[in-house]
# Entry
Amino acid sequence: MANVEGTQTAEEEIKRASDFLRGDLSADIENAEPNMASTSEHLLKFHGIYAQDNRDVRRERSLAGETLDYIFMVRVAIPGGKLNPDQWLALDQVASDLADGTIRLTTRQAVQFHGVVKKGLRPMAFELDAHLMTSFGACGDVVRNTVMCPDLLANGANARLVVMADHIARTFKPTTRAHWEIFVNGEKSASSEPDNEHDFYGTTYLPRKFKIAIASPHENCVDILAQDLGLIPATHNELGEGFNVVVAGGLGRSYAQPDTFARLADPLTFVTYAEVDDLIRAVLATFRDLGDRTNRRRARMKYIAADVGVDQFRREIEARLGHELRAPHALKFGAADDHLGWSNLSDGSAQLGIRVGAGRVSDRPDGKGLRTALRVIAQTLPVNFIITAQQDILITSISPNDRGSVESILARNAVRGVEELGNVERSALACPALPTCSQALGEAERKLPDVVALVQTQLDANGLSKRRLQLRMTGCPNGCARPAVAEVGIVGKTKNTYDLYLGGGPRGDRLASLYREKVKIDDLPSVLEPLFERWKNEGLEGEAFGDFFNRVETP
Ligand code: SRM
Ligand code: SF4
# Structure
């Protein structure tokens, strides 16, 4: 099979001509302009940096004939979301010194900083590097931050599994030194030889992003079927420990392009630990060779599988692997665990999961809040942190003697415990959307508290307060908060209206279907009310809303 024919996108040539992701970045960063040239903007993404402008002031500045308020978003890749206190304190400091004073936890267990100015990019990269973190490879046409269920890190998990996210991050990160030359130490590589980049990346890297996650076999907090490649720990009767592998999931869609769609990953095979790297390499090579480089909207791996069919896609992977794949195992998922609240781990330590509304770690104007609480905890107690794929944070490795100290620091800073949260609020997700995201058609993160309150009120009015409901909201159909697999997905369509998707599974194993188009937020209660009433009256014992909707409304 050949690559998709046609004229390749401009981005492909930018990559090819960039000398392994250098381009004119150094010169562009140093000049006096507040923004970057568009070629550099594309390359910047590989370095974890997005050129943005503050959209709240875009119109008034344009009308006044002023330049846009140029800012940058920096995404820090954190494999498995694991951070030690030194790293958390460095992120906290960077948020104050170089960004907008907030730390944004992402749906892929990474961290984003918003409102960074061009002059701050190098100091930020330097600080991150000093604390063994980097934004390099957090964005761009490469393997993105590897996500991992926190349960796999605790409770006596096997030693190979604990380091799996780090291993994948290290093994599949581009090897070019460009980032360190340009952003960290400013020195041109001593050698004039070209970098020895991975074969599967070559000079044009992947057609687009590639996402890997590792799920718990018991619950699906990482939305494993939304990934390009998912690993689920399993034991084979004859071969022992390894992973069931799923491939070719992805959720992004574009209104402008009807041939884009959300797709759940398919089971591919079982591999042992010894085989997993080669399999990932073969899948990456398949994507590299067959992915659509003529149209970035269709340049995800899911479209190869959808276009050529799962069997042919499998044969393509086998051809690059050099042997046949084993038959896949049937998979079954439990409902996602949010990991919130206290739990005792098998090593005798305790863990506390704290809800972070839309992942935004910040303080209130009076200086109290989650950001201060986490800083004090990191400064004073020997703990660690894990960011979850639900945009929340876990404080881990808490000595039983320190539980009281953790609780009093949180209480002093008015951080609410899980028992104080409403059930909708507890699991709701929202993407950043306005004012930073260039692709946002409507609000998400800023509107989430209102939406949660409206839906919770509606549930309460129907006597359903105690029922869980998974609500996810995004400012556009790219689906960054994964609304396409949610029980209730609210997806920006225009400035003030949203498409409403219903019936995803709490297990993340079913796509939601479009229920109503162009709903105004204020009209949400009246749209949901009859469905909630039916759920109450006709729902089976313990039946989740998504399952109920799917049973009664889907033909
Ligand atoms: Fe995303 C683009 C934010 C997870 C699908 N995503 C963006 C950008 C960079 C906008 C842009 O291209 O200019 C957003 C930055 C906005 C801002 O101001 O911060 C953005 N995506 C996010 C985050 C921060 C959402 C969040 O609330 O946490 C997540 C960061 C993940 C990370 O740490 O790496 C985030 N994005 C996702 C997910 C969910 C996931 O990976 O589990 C998806 C759906 C899964 C998938 O990839 O199919 C997702 N983001 C997209 C897409 C659509 C891709 C496609 O297939 O068409 C875009 C658009 C693009 O890449 O051009 C996008
Ligand atoms: Fe931006 Fe759309 Fe992603 Fe929200 S879903 S962050 S609006 S790209």
Q: What stands out?
A: The mean pLDDT is 95. The radius of gyration is 23 Å.
